[in-house]
Amino acid sequence: MTLLETLARGAGAIAAYAAVGVILMIVGFYVIDWATPGKLSEIIRQERNPNATLLASSALAAVGLIVAASIWASGGRLAEGLAGTAVFGLVGIVVQTVAMLLFDKVVGISVRELVKEPELQPGARVLAVTHVALGLITAVAVI
Q: So what family is this one in (predicted)?
């Protein structure tokens, strides 16, 4: 394989993984949107709500960890890696969503209430760390 072919193959793989990663992040964003009252993008952009911003950002970071681990675990097998990335990313999003619902019901930290608060709340910090921790747990499980 020539250098040009190697570079083209590598660039194609990067573009494919990036596309799957972006799709997963958009799905994750809309799942958080579903869990919050109002339109999340407007709450972040117009209201500049720090709680909504932190929760969405941490969820996206968690998805990024899962995508990176899936790429690492693929061992250079592109088709398997892309399929694994999609499946494991979706599992990670589901796990994060279930955790948010459990924290609401069991611990009493409600995403719906947090995004109504104009100041950064301790509960948002707890849920943000939970998002990243679950992303890391999922990522390590993939590896």
A: Belongs to the UPF0719 family.
What's the pLDDT tens digit per position in 23-69?
A: 999 999 999 898 888 899 999 999 999 999 999 999 999 999 999 99
The model's pTM: 0.87
